[in-house]
Design brief:
Length: 317
């Protein structure tokens, strides 16, 4: 067992060195092979491993003209004050490529401030991918706040809660919300929200300098169902009522208006401001989320967006 661990460490060390030589020092793969004393094919595999294991993080610093133009048009059409569009890979089926890196860079822009900043966050797969791209820092002056619970009705915790991960990465205090996303009854919701620690977290979220949220879809494949926060029959009722998307558990229609009744009566997450008064950045890129993203923009639930060329083009049609 010890020998296997040593071998794995040595392999990652070589991959990290190869990645550094390629992406930082600007060596060709032939040069890396020569310097490491390996074949060109091995050098290529090591460079690829450095990316897949997140030993090296690559970001695009040069803005592409088409992306800039799309971002400006999205801002004008939906009257928002922030939009970043990254290139699309037409053959990729990932749901975070490029967008997660751009979102991490935007989050780091706030966290690198020497002045205290409150960062509020939702949850979900896209935000988890964003956090995985964060650069480790030491920023005890900031506060990282959760806007949404991370517990399903059976008591299990979601894998996609991100606040503690951000806090661990940037060494900042964090304020979790150890509650279900949706309470079993309205009475349970009232009791939960009456707790002083919960009220404090919600108030901190209200004061946030910037908020990052995922934009969820509605339907049989919705994250709310997959993560055990709502039952299939509850989702069907939401869709029948016109629900197009959800942000931190709050369901809204194609015009961005919150659905009356249904699970919204039992959502324990922080309230959504409408229109959003502070910077609220939605992060999404998958085409199936188009209706949800469009509704969030129309309803002013978000006033910032990080997405890719494909989604931007769909939003402009």
């Amino acid at each position: 067992m010890v020998r296997n661990i040593e071998q794995e460490t040595s392999r990652l060390d070589e991959a990290a060195r190869a990645g550094w030589l390629y992406y930082i020092a600007g060596n060709t793969q032939d040069e890396i092979a020569r310097k490491l004393g390996v074949s060109r094919q091995t050098a290529q595999r090591l460079v690829s491993l450095s990316i897949s294991e997140k030993l090296i993080k690559v970001r695009l610093d040069h803005p592409i003209a088409n992306c800039l133009e799309l971002a400006e048009r999205v801002k004008q059409k939906y009257d928002i004050d922030f939009c970043e569009v990254v290139p699309s890979d037409p053959e990729s089926d990932t749901v975070s490529l490029g967008v997660a890196q751009a979102a991490a860079a935007e989050l780091e822009r706030y966290i690198m401030s020497p002045h205290p900043v409150i960062v509020a966050m939702g949850t979900g797969r896209m935000l988890r991918a964003m956090v995985d791209q964060l650069t480790p820092m030491d920023c005890p002056q900031h506060k990282i706040v959760s806007l949404v619970g991370n517990i399903a009705t059976d008591g299990s915790a979601t894998l996609y809660d991100v606040v503690s991960r951000v806090a661990d990465t940037v060494k900042a205090p964090h304020y979790p919300m150890p509650l279900p996303v949706i309470a079993t009854t309205v009475q349970d919701k009232t009791l939960m929200l009456a707790q002083k620690p919960v009220r404090n977290v919600i108030e901190l979220g209200r004061q946030a300098d910037v908020t990052f949220v995922g934009v969820g879809t509605m339907g049989d494949d919705a994250a709310l169902i997959r993560d055990g926060f709502v039952k299939p029959e509850e989702m069907r009722a939401l869709v029948k009522a016109g629900a197009a998307g959800e942000i931190i558990g709050w369901a809204y229609d194609a015009e961005g208006q919150l659905i009356e009744g249904q699970t919204n009566d039992r959502v324990v997450s922080a309230p959504l401001e409408q229109p959003a008064k502070r910077r609220v950045i939605g992060i999404a890129m998958a085409p199936p989320r188009l209706r949800a993203v469009k509704g969030a923009l129309i309803g002013k639930l978000i006033n910032g967006l990080i997405t890719n060329e494909k989604m931007a083009e769909l939003l402009l049609k």
